[in-house]
C-alpha cells in the first residue's frame, strides 16, 4: 500500500501574490512560512510519496508564457531538492475554468492513475489552500488537509490549519497506521494497528485467554491494536489463532514500511516464578527459535501448543527474527511472560530515534 500526499503549489507551497495570483517573476517568488522544514520532516520521518497537483490557468498561452512559469518552478524545485525534498511526480493542468477539463482540479483526470488497489486510501491526503483541493480529495475517496485560515468546507476534513508545523506533526504521528482484512472459508480477520499509539487494545477473537494475551501486545507494546476475528471455533482453535498471527504480522510489516530510524532490536522480563526472554530483530528475514516448555495442554480456552505456532506465523508475514525462551511452574504465568516480553521487545524495536534505515545495506 502506498501512502501519498497530493500537494497543491500556489498558496500551499509558494505564497500566492495578490492581484493576478500568478508567480511569473522572480520578485513574486516566496515560500509559505514553515513549508520547507515541514516537508523535510515528513520526508525524513515517513515513507510518504509526494505528488504535486496544480492548476495553472492558461499556461503556455500569451497571457501566461511557459518561460514565466518555468523559472520560479525550477527555483522552487532546486531549493526543495537541496533540503532532501523531491516530488515523485509533478502534475500541472493548464486549462481554463470555462473549458471544463476533466484534468482540472477538482476533477480527477490528473490523478486517476493513482486510484488503484495499491493506494492507501485511509492514510493518503490532498493538501491545498482551496475548497477545490478538498473537493478533489473527496472525489478521490481520500481525506483533505485544508491549509490556511479556518473555513467552512462543507465536507469532513482531516485537518484545517494555517501551520505547516501542525501538518507535519499530524502526518508523522499517523504515518505508521495500517488496517488489513483477511477472509477465507475458515476465518474473517480484521486488524487495525497504529505503531504511534498509546497502548489501547480492543480484541475480540472468540478465545478469552488469547484476547488477554493479545491485549498485552497493545498495552506493553505501546501500540493501538484493534483485532476482530470470526473463526470456525466449532472445528477447533487452530485457524483462528494462526490467521490472527498472519494478519498481525502483515500489519506490522506494512506499518513499519522502510523502517526508517527504528531501533530494530529488542527484551526480557520476570513474572512471579516465571521468566521470559524475547530477542527480536525486524530484519526482513523470517526465523523463530522457541524454547518454552509448557506443562499444561490448555490454559482456559487456549491450546498451549498454538503459542509456538502463533509466533511462527507472525514471523513469516512480518519477516522478523524472533528468539523466545521461558521457564516457570505455572503455564499461565509462562505464556503471559512470553507475550509481555514480546510486547516490550516490540516497543523497544519500533521506537524511532533517527531517520536512517538501521542497516549497513541501507535497506531492510
- The CATH architecture of the largest domain comes to 2-Layer Sandwich
Mean pLDDT: 92
Helix percent band: 25-40%
Q: Beta-strand level of the residues, as a percent range?
A: 15-25%
Q: What does this molecule look like?
A:
The protein folds into 2 domains: 4-173, Rossmann fold (3-Layer(aba) Sandwich); 177-350, Imidazole glycerol phosphate dehydratase, domain 1 (Ribosomal Protein S5, domain 2, 2-Layer Sandwich), CATH 3.30.230.40. It is built from 8 helices and 16 strands. It has helices at residues 35-45, 66-82, 131-140, 164-173, 208-221, 238-256, 305-318, 331-350; strands at 4-7, 49-55, 89-93, 125-128, 143-147, 159-161, 177-183, 187-194, 201-204, 224-231, 268-271, 274-281, 287-291, 298-299, 302-303, 321-327. The strands form 4 sheets. Strands 3-2-1-4-5-6 form a 6-stranded parallel beta sheet, with helices on both faces. A 4-stranded mixed beta sheet has the order 7-8-10-9, with helices on one face. A 4-stranded mixed beta sheet has the order 11-12-16-13, covered by helices on one side. Helix 2 (66-82) links the parallel strand 2 and strand 3 (89-93). Helix 1 packs parallel to helix 4 (164-173) and helix 5 runs parallel beside helix 8 (331-350).
Amino acid at each position: 500500500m502506498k501512502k501519498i500526499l497530493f500537494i497543491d503549489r500556489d498558496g500551499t507551497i509558494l505564497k500566492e501574490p495578490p492581484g493576478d495570483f500568478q508567480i511569473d517573476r522572480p520578485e513574486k517568488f516566496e515560500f509559505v512560512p514553515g513549508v520547507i522544514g515541514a516537508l523535510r520532516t515528513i520526508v525524513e520521518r515517513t515513507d510518504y510519496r509526494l505528488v504535486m497537483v496544480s492548476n495553472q490557468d492558461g499556461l503556455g498561452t500569451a497571457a501566461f508564457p511557459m518561460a514565466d512559469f518555468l523559472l520560479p518552478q525550477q527555483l522552487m524545485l532546486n531549493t526543495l531538492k537541496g533540503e532532501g525534498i523531491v516530488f515523485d511526480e509533478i502534475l500541472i493542468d493548464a486549462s481554463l475554468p470555462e473549458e471544463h477539463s476533466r484534468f482540472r482540479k477538482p476533477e480527477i483526470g490528473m490523478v486517476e492513475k493513482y486510484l488503484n488497489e495499491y493506494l492507501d486510501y485511509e492514510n493518503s491526503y490532498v493538501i491545498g489552500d482551496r475548497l477545490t483541493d478538498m473537493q478533489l480529495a473527496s472525489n478521490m475517496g481520500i481525506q483533505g488537509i485544508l491549509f490556511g485560515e479556518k473555513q467552512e468546507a462543507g465536507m469532513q476534513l482531516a485537518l484545517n490549519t494555517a501551520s505547516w508545523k501542525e501538518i507535519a506533526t499530524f502526518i508523522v504521528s499517523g504515518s505508521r497506521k495500517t488496517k488489513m482484512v483477511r477472509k477465507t472459508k475458515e476465518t474473517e480477520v480484521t486488524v487495525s494497528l497504529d505503531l504511534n499509539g498509546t497502548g489501547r487494545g480492543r480484541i475480540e477473537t472468540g478465545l478469552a485467554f488469547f484476547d488477554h494475551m493479545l491485549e498485552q501486545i497493545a498495552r506493553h507494546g505501546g501500540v493501538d491494536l484493534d483485532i476482530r476475528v470470526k473463526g470456525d471455533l466449532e472445528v477447533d482453535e487452530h485457524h483462528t489463532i494462526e490467521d490472527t498471527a498472519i494478519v498481525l504480522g502483515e500489519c506490522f510489516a506494512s506499518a513499519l514500511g522502510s523502517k526508517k530510524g527504528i531501533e530494530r532490536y529488542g527484551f526480557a522480563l520476570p513474572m512471579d516464578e516465571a521468566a521470559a526472554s524475547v530477542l527480536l530483530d525486524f530484519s526482513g528475514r523470517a526465523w523463530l527459535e522457541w524454547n518454552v516448555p509448557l506443562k499444561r495442554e490448555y490454559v482456559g480456552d487456549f491450546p498451549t501448543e498454538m503459542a509456538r505456532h502463533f509466533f511462527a506465523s507472525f514471523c513469516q508475514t512480518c519477516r522478523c527474527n524472533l528468539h523466545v525462551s521461558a521457564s516457570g511452574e505455572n503455564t499461565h504465568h509462562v505464556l503471559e511472560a512470553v507475550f509481555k516480553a514480546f510486547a516490550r521487545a516490540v516497543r523497544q524495536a519500533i521506537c524511532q530515534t533517527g531517520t536512517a534505515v538501521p542497516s549497513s545495506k541501507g535497506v531492510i
